[in-house]
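Justification of resources, computational component.

The compute hours requested in this renewal are based largely on the per-chain cost of generating structure records like the one below. Each record pairs the submitted sequence with a full structure-token output. That output is archived, and it is also reused by downstream analysis tasks.
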Amino acid sequence: GTISSVILARVLGPDGKGIFAVCTLIPFLIVTVFDFGVVPSSAYFLARRRHPPGEVLGNNILFAGALGTAGVVLGAVAISLLRATAFAAVPPACLYGCLLLAPLQIFFLFVQAVPLGLQRFADYNRAAVLRSAFFLIGTVMLVWAPPGGALYALAASAFAWGLAGLVLFAETRLLAGRPVLRLRRSYLREVSRFGLQSHVGNLLSYLNYRGDLLLVNWLLGPAAAGFYSVSVLIAEQLWIFTNAVQPALFHPVAAENELPFTTDGWPG
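The structure output for this chain reads:
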């Protein structure tokens, strides 16, 4: 991922890198809003063996289709309202084109929750590695070899998310079995109840970490946003190790049939 970022920064320059950073932030924001806690809750219920893997996979695919479509529609409306102000310096083709990333990302993340819930961490991590590898390949082919602009970088990102999603689905189908493409109300009810408890907090946290890039682009322009996005990326590399701990701890604990506590609440 760092190699891809270096190539993009060198080829696109500050303005192009800023446009790319803003346009990739928009679909991530859509995903965060329309995630509704499906990823952590579905992985949790899989770890608890509350629902069969095929049912979780099939319902997550249905959720991804519905939420991805809603995200694209509402994202297009929001861009139309803010294009002349917050996104005045961003080309319209990049603004509307980046919306196609949202359903690809939602599909990838919702399917990736299945190997996470099954505690198949090698499969879960391999999907993320493949996505970064595909993005590097797409960046070299579309941005570096024939120097292209931010729109080509977005195409490379779509190539990576789409191809990685197909590979992930094929591998997850082998783990979970045939997906049950039929909405189960019990699953929807449990996932919604569990996921919404943390969804608002996750959304506010994401806006706290990412909303500043939109402000920088709005107030100072794409070039400043490009420099700012690179500096933030360097600082956030410190999160790599801590972010790896959470899924490796949470889901094995969730899979325990009996919690290691006595009836009075103290460790047994």
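The longest helix spans residues 185-220. Confidence is low (pLDDT under 50) at residues 259-268.
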